[in-house]
Design a protein that fits this description.
Layout lengths: L2 E4 L1 E5 L3 E10 L5 E7 L5 E2 L5 E5 L3 E5 L5 E5 L3 E8 L7 E7 L4 E8 L8 E10 L4 E7 L9 E6 L5 E4 L6 H5 L1
Parallel strand pairs: 4-8
Antiparallel strand pairs: 1-6, 2-3, 3-4, 5-6, 7-8, 9-12, 10-13, 11-12, 13-14, 14-15
């Protein structure tokens, strides 16, 4: 499933504009990660607002100071992999195949202090347009949703949930 983030703008000296997105929420809904975005990666939504829609043909660059940038790239795809937690539970995920070149983990608190649950996410850059295979586990009240399994995120923005046994990792790589 593709994910869309609204773009925020930081203006410097009145005429310089820098674009960024806020990914994840920590305690008291503080932003977990800020990702600076190249203007060429912005698209417009139906309301005419600037957004960034994953997956996209770009790569993540982390500077020496730890700044996270999203820059265009014809040879890379960046995915936003997200696993929601159960009610009052938590989620974990692991990218099984391919190994991402760069990944940025983030969390999403479902309440101010996480007592209603903590979901997990990753921004991951892979070479080419390879789909990403993810193993996930989640706890809490799931209301019929699987507690563990595999997801495949495709470059066209769709995802498939494989409700397989967690031990069938070798079958997934085939």
């Amino acid at each position: 499933m593709s994910k869309t983030y609204p773009v925020k703008v930081k203006e410097v000296d009145g005429d310089l504009r820098f674009y960024y997105i806020e990914v994840g929420k920590k305690q008291y809904f503080k932003t977990h990660r800020i990702v600076w975005v190249s203007p060429s990666l912005l698209t417009k939504n139906q309301k005419g607002e600037d957004v960034v829609k994953f997956p996209l043909r770009a790569r993540i660059v982390i500077t020496e100071k730890g700044t996270i940038k999203l820059v265009p790239s014809d040879s890379h795809t960046t995915y936003d992999v997200f696993v929601p937690c159960g009610y009052r539970g938590e989620a974990r995920l692991e990218i099984v195949d391919p190994v991402p070149e760069v990944k940025v983990d983030y969390v999403q608190y479902e309440s101010e202090r996480g007592s209603l649950g903590v979901s997990a996410g990753v921004l991951a850059t892979v070479t080419g347009e390879a789909p990403i295979k993810v193993r996930y586990q989640r706890s809490g009240r799931l209301y019929g949703a699987p507690s563990q399994g595999f997801m495949i995120y495709l470059p066209n923005g769709k995802s498939e949930d494989l409700e397989a046994d967690i031990d069938d990792l070798e079958d997934l790589k085939a």
